[in-house]
Structures are given as structure tokens and as C-alpha cells.
User: Fold this.
Amino acid sequence: MDIATPIGIVASFAVVMVAIVLGGDVLTYVDIPSVFIVIGGTIGATIIRFTFNTVVSALKTGISTALNQDRTSGRDLIDEGIELLQAHRKGGPVALEAVKIRNELLGKGVTMVIDGFAEPVIRDVLLADRDRTADRLDQGVRIFRAIGDAAPAFGMIGTLVGLVAMLASMDDPSKIGPSMAVALLTTLYGALISNVIALPIADKLEAKISSEYVNRTMIVDIVLGIQRNGNPDMLRDQLEVYLAPAERRRPDAPEAGG
Assistant:
């Protein structure tokens, strides 16, 4: 689990709550009409721009990405790929069945090698999976950015609604306070939803796109290298191109597992 996300969200809301508690009554900052305007309006506007099922899927993807930390690094994939290639060179496809594969897509590709699929078929299937994953994450980015745009906008709409109600009831002092609460609290709610939840999750998804695309491209090269029964050193050099210079194995460094 990526603890940075819940810590950041809790810390952000905690700062606001401390300021509220120090400033007076907490219940003063709770207003149901304001919540209804911001949350209901944001959901409605987002569903208009995207389909309902797409929004639900993106919410699940965004929450999962924000809370779960992918611990599979490029270096881990290279080491695992070389291990699989060496097993294949020693014992053929049958030897791969005895190797426990940690990455799901890599396992899928290796299974196709074991089953004797042709190289073009393996490449097309894995590339399609890579591109579909990138599309799904990109869709999540767009939806969370739409939420980040809509929440402050409906906060402003709520402010206008509250101001109109306040001006319309100037002759009744008892109605001025609730109308002013709607006017101000909708802006607060919209800003919090946008800047503490929606936009940070969109940024996490965007970073995930880049890392997933690179990792899945590496997996394609690994599986094809295994299918061709290639040279481990050549495959390692090919894969390390995807790593940052500081992460690449030095020429005098020992082999993984050696």
C-alpha cells in the first residue's frame, strides 16, 4: 500500500479541521445544501462528459492506483526475464513451467511461449494489452481532471445561489445566515475536493501511465527474447536501455543471483 496518499489526504483535511476548530463551532462548516450542490453537481457534470460505466471504472482505477504502490521495478523485470531466459535455454519451454512468475503480464506471455504460439501472435497480444492499459489509465486521468475542474465550478455556482437567496431575503434577517453559509461553504467544499482528492489522483494516474508503458514494453521484449531463445547478455543490454543511467548494471557488477 502506498501510505503517502492517505497520509497526504488526512494531513490536508487535518490542517483545515484544526483551523476550523480553532476558529469556532465545527458544525458551522457543515451545510447539507452546499454538499448537495458541489457533490451532486460534480457527479452530474462528469457523467454528462463521460458514460456512467466509464466514470465508475475510472473511480475504481484511480482509487486503486492511489492506494496501491506497484513495487515492480524495471530492474526486477530484467532480473526475472534473464532468469526465465536461462531456464528456457537449459530446459526448453517445459522448464518455464517450474518457474514462479511474479508479474501477471509476463506470466501470460510465458504461458503463450509454453503453448507454442508464433512470435507475431505473442507480440500482438502483449502490445494490445500494453496499449489498452495505457488507454484505461489515460481515461482515468481525464475523468479525475474533469472532477477537479467541475468541483470548484459548482462551488462558485453554489456561491451565486447563496448570494441570490441572501439578497432575496434581506427583509428577513433569520434567512441571511443560512444563505451566506451556502454561498461560502460551496466554494470551500469544491476547492477541497479538487485540490486534495481529484487532481492529486489524476497526477498519480498520469505517472502510472509512463511507468506501466515502459514496464509492459520491457515485458514484450523479454517474452520475445525467451521465445527466440536469445542470448541473456544481449537481452540484458537491450532491456537496460529502458532504465535511467544510474539504474543500469555496471560492466564489472556481478550477475543477478550470482
